[in-house]
């Protein structure tokens, strides 16, 4: 089974140059993988390079690649089983207390920097108001 580009794709194009078979296509609005060309990078790597370079981690995944097959699956129980399995996995990941603290640390640093900038801006504004009186 070849890989597929999901709705998690952010269009960064990191996958385009690393695809050894040129299976990744861009139609002007969306990226997609030609299932007839994708070989899961089996000829060169132990990991599919599109998935390895994807910054979202879920933009390129093993699965159904054909739009026609995807539409047919939309009305099948298998489609929804996979959809809810993915949903459950993502929700569990969000609530996992052992997950990487990367985003919490990022948020803390961002909030601290934003507070500093806002207080500096507010202080500058108050000083300017005081000077204009």
Structure write-up:
The protein is mostly helical. It folds into two domains: 3-95, Alpha-Beta Plaits, CATH 3.30.70; 100-133. Helix content is 50%, strand content 9%. The chain has helices at 15-18, 49-53, 67-74, 77-95, 102-132, and strands at residues 3-5, 24-26, 31-33, 60-62. A two-stranded antiparallel sheet has the order 1-4. It has a two-stranded antiparallel ribbon with strand order 2-3. The radius of gyration is 22 Å and the shape is extended. It holds the Pfam family Fer4_7. InterPro entries: 4Fe4S_Fe-S-bd (IPR017896). It comes from Leptolyngbya boryana.
Q: What are the defining features of this structure?
A:
133 residues; mainly alpha; Alpha-Beta Plaits; 2 domains; two-stranded antiparallel sheet; disordered C terminus
């Amino acid at each position: 089974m070849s890989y597929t580009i999901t709705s998690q794709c952010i269009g960064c194009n990191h996958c385009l140059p690393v695809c050894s078979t040129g299976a990744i296509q861009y139609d002007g609005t969306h990226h997609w993988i030609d299932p007839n060309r994708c070989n899961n990078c089996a000829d060169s790597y132990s990991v599919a390079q599109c998935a390895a370079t994807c910054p979202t981690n879920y933009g390129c995944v093993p699965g159904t690649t054909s739009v026609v097959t995807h539409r047919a699956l939309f009305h099948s129980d298998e489609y929804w089983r996979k959809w809810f399995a993915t949903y459950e996995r993502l929700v569990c990941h969000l609530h996992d207390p052992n997950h990487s603290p990367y985003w919490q640390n990022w948020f803390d640093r961002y909030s601290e920097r934003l507070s500093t900038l806002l207080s500096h801006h507010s202080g500058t504004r108050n000083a300017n108001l005081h000077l204009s009186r």
